[in-house]
From TrEMBL:
It comes from the Bacteria. Keywords: Hydrolase, Plasmid. It is an enzyme of class 3 (hydrolase). Pathway: Carbohydrate degradation; pentose phosphate pathway; D-ribulose 5-phosphate from D-glucose 6-phosphate (oxidative stage): step 2/3. It comes from Sphingomonas sanxanigenens DSM 19645 = NX02. Hydrolysis of 6-phosphogluconolactone to 6-phosphogluconate. This is 6-phosphogluconolactonase.
Amino acid sequence: MHEVEWLEFDDWAAMVWQVVNDVEIAVECAVDARGCALLAVPGGKTPVPIFRALAARSLNWPKVMLLPTDERLVAEDDPLSNAGLIRAHFGTTGATIMPLCERVDIDPGAAGRAADRRLRVLQWPFDLVWLGMGEDGHTASILPGPDFEAALSAPLSRRACGVVPDPPPKEAPVARVTLTRAALVATRTLMLTISGDKKRAVARQAIEDGPRSATAIGRVLAECSAPIKVVWCK
Ligand SMILES: O=C1O[C@H](COP(=O)(O)O)[C@@H](O)[C@H](O)[C@H]1O
């Protein structure tokens, strides 16, 4: 694991400002160096105020491609949809938004394989993988259940897979497609945004446990050789 830079904020405005600036720098560096920027961004609730502020920035959006780190297998107009969340915020910026799933009415395994095929056209690595984390230590949709180890130990050539969480997470009890750990760590820089005391304790323990961590976030960060920044807000 690369050394972790850990930042803490007492208020959301300061945290949002920090993360927006970091994303802006990642985009500018990528566009200057390679003419485009490839970013994976989290779903769920935590990134919402950050998305709002980021979308208002005048970045070179037409050069930016945004993917969700994971998807809940629901229609894009469902409030649980991560692609829907991203489109709602960045849809008018000029960025290209690439949902992981074209179809959500198929079984999770097939949806995962279809996402994997779609992702093969992209020029990797990511310029930025921005992760969220649940209080149980899941990140992207690498959730406890029968697909947990497969998502973590998939080879480099496998970028996405289907996940049936067991137990179903209470905030979004649906099947998922997630970027694999191999895909998530194929990045020039990685950022994790979290809030609340519980998540701080879980993330700290996961980092301390490293590859022996029982949590997805611990196992992902342990494999990451890019610079890692954790941004926490009370
Ligand atoms: O299910 C998911 O959960 C995590 C954490 O979400 P939050 O609402 O607690 O911020 C999120 O990062 C992931 O993308 C999402 O699908």
